[in-house]
Amino acid sequence: MGESFLMEVCVDSVESAVNAERGGAGRLELCCSLMEGGLTPSLGLLQIVKRCVKIPVYVMIRPRGGDFLYSDHEVEVMMKDMEVMKNHGADGFVLGALTEDGQVDAELCMEFLAAARPLPVTFHRAFDMVRDAAVALEMLVSIGFQRVLTSGCDSSALEGLPLIKRLTEQAKGRITIMPGGGITERNLQRILEGSGAQEFHCSARSSRDSAMKFRNSCVTMGAALTAPEYSLKVADVSKVRAFNAIAKNTL
């Protein structure tokens, strides 16, 4: 792929990881439960993905869905997950924590970065829940995060594009601003041109029908809003290639 940009694809399976690399992804964000915005994946998933791909794999460290205000026990879990993932080939981490009043939890984040060292760490879309994005960005720079993933504190990167542009200008290369959230083939060019970003984050997924022949339509394995049991969402090689081509032509 070209040297002027980097495409990160978030994946939750070995199949998606392999497809993302084949399509031209430069880095993976590995997680589970994408319908909750991504949670910490299993160690087994990390180990097999690392065996199957050559590009860097950043591991999501998020113990549950919901907000980013963590209890002492949740912090213990996050620290242990980082230790285990680090010892089994993680190339970086994706995490974030906030205080109850919507600020970056600087003290906790410094502990996370110390535990991650020397691996790079991305502050994830907890950033989109902060009270003041400009203040939060300066805090992330001072703490030592390598990048921040953001939709511009809006429902998607397209809607948050004006703020993403301001953050990119504010960052002045001190930290990478990576747009993510609702990025598609239809809006990627506009987001890259409008933001000045050199990295972007996408899932590039398509639905694939289950291979199951017998199906019980009366039972679901989760809440009513979860994905149907007989439809699987995986990273689509053709979609990843399309994103790659758009970015090459834009940057």
Principal-axes geometry comes out as globular
**What is the CATH T-level topology?**
TIM Barrel
What fraction, in percent, of the residue positions are helical?
Answer: 25-40%
At the first level of CATH, what is the class?
Alpha Beta
What is the N-to-C order of secondary-structure elements (H for helix, E for strand)? EHEHEHEHEHEHEHEEEH
Q: What's the total number of strands?
A: 10
- The CATH superfamily name is Copper homeostasis (CutC) domain
Strand content is 15-25%
The rounded distance between the terminal residues' Cα atoms is 12 Å
**Architecture (CATH level 2) name:** Alpha-Beta Barrel
Biggest sheet statistics? 8 strands, parallel
**Uncertain regions spanning at least 5 consecutive residues:** none
Mean residue pLDDT:
95
Précis, in short:
With 251 residues, the protein is α/β, with parallel strands linked by helices. The protein is built from 8 helices and 10 strands.
Word description of this protein:
The chain is an alpha/beta fold. The strands form two sheets. It has an eight-stranded parallel beta sheet. 41% of the residues are buried. The mean pLDDT is 95. May play a role in copper homeostasis. Can bind one Cu(1+) per subunit. Homotetramer. Its main location: cytoplasm. This is Copper homeostasis protein cutC homolog.
